Amino acid sequence: MKKLEKQKLYDSFVQLEADAKRMLARIDEMQTDLMQVLERDAELEIENQHLRERLQEIQAAADKKSERPKTAAAPRLSKSRANLKKLYKAGFHVCNQMYGSRLDDDEPCAFCLDVIYGERR
């Protein structure tokens, strides 16, 4: 191999090494950015959950103040079942079979109703 070819090969290798180092630095930057975004997302999820719970407390207090006589004693739903009921009333399935998909023409789903109001042991 001639000296010129060896020099070209060496220069190419040095350039490749420099490119790889720049790529690793960029990957590090992106990883740091991604971690910050994920942390912020988790914080916002927690904050949203606390705000939802606080809103439910405020609504429950307001409902208690303006409590009307009930025609029948309806069983109280747990917080999780109340959330499922809200999703169902918004037009989404909450049953295991079709969870998250839209209700067809707002037709009732026996499986969803069982999840919300059914007895659990």
Salient structural properties:
coiled coil, 0% strand, 2 domains, metal ion binding, mainly alpha, 121 residues, elongated
Average predicted local confidence, pLDDT: 86
Question: Any low-confidence stretches, pLDDT <50, length ≥5?
Answer: none
Overall, the morphology is: elongated
Order of helices and strands: HHH
Determine the N-to-C terminus distance.
81 Å
Q: Helix tally?
A: 3
Oligomer: single chain
Tell me about this structure.
The chain is mainly α and about 120 residues long. The protein folds into two domains: about 1-70; about 70-120, no CATH class. It is built from three helices and no strands. Helix 2 packs antiparallel against helix 3. The protein starts with a helix and ends with a helix. The mean pLDDT is about 85.
